[in-house]
Automatic annotation (TrEMBL):
The chain holds residues 244 to 615 of 615 of the full protein. It is an enzyme of class 2 (transferase). This is Glutamine--fructose-6-phosphate aminotransferase [isomerizing]. Keywords: Aminotransferase, Cytoplasm, Glutamine amidotransferase, Repeat, Transferase. The keyword Transferase applies. Residues 45-184, 217-362 form the SIS domain. Homodimer. It comes from Streptomyces griseoaurantiacus. It comes from the Bacteria. Its EC number is 2.6.1.16. It catalyses: D-fructose 6-phosphate + L-glutamine = D-glucosamine 6-phosphate + L-glutamate. The gene is glmS.
Amino acid sequence: SAAEKGGYDYFMLKEIAEQPKAVADTLLGRIDAGGSLTLDEVRIDDSELREIDKVVIVACGTAFHAGMIAKYAIEHWTRLPCEVELASEFRYRDPILGGQSLVIAISQSGETMDTLMALRHAREQGSRVLAICNTNGSTIPRESDAVLYTHAGPEVAVASTKAFLTQLVACYLVALYLGQVRGTKWGDEIRAVIRDLSGISAAVDRVLETMEPVRALARSLADKDTVLFLGRHVGYPVALEGALKLKELAYMHAEGFAAGELKHGPIALIEEDLPVVVLVPSPRGRSVLHDKIVSNIQEIRARGARTIVIAEEGDEAVAPYADHLVRIPATPTLLQPLVATVPLQVFACELATARGNEVDQPRNLAKSVTVE
Ligand code: G6P
């Protein structure tokens, strides 16, 4: 009913709008007054966490994209090797796991069969399993050694939005916590990022307030057949997530690429007026990535692409090459997906609406895939 949708036409719109709160709720009570993380719910002893020699993340769909982003954060802040794998592939390739592997299973519903089977396999190998889950008491957390719940609240729309943002928050918390417990040379950066996380909810809110031009752009592209997405570093999984949203909702051909691979194939797809969404890393921090993306944008634009550029406020270098410029607040590089994903969700939702599609219940898809 309309009341259940909180006055919005679709659950998806409501859930997109709830993201600032979902992010804040997922941080709530997990940062102490001294600015350190307290994840008491992670009932794996610190001594055991210090012994871990590898992290393996398993998930499906949107949760898998959260896992891909987590890998960048975990490897950077903990210096532990981290693999991330589709749950449906993981179990069938005889993965190398042991008592010192920490397996992280990410699932909104906690009922995805492939993810459940992957975690059972991991436990049989003697690995510890930590679930990141949005549904209290569901099967995946019940079968795990520990669980860090995301506090997105119930997600009804089939296409995941607020659950994804909270999965990212949970992944950052785990990465930072492992860094904190194990002690790395990034101690100061870890403390700074914990502070930055507290400002993310407001940053997501700011993005939501500026989405009207993105909606107008989406409507103008309703008769296109293909949209490409380019990103690198943590922007690469964001590109994959933007493409997934468009497939799920708009039933369009959409593909995400690592921008560094452009010359190895994707550039052959560029033709006059093809919409290409480009995620631009912060010009601060790892600025070498920024400069590489700017030259990618020039390359595709020279070949006629219509460039839709998602870039940090104050990044002037991209402006001359952007047919459409979408501004997002400045964040540390690793946290950028929390703000960069939001315009892609709005874009896909509006395109689906413009194409007359059922936003909350896309054809052929289920909210939770409980069969293999
Ligand atoms: C289905 C949903 C997706 C979701 C995926 C994984 O495909 O439509 O939105 O990302 O399952 O679901 P989970 O509940 O395990 O996160």
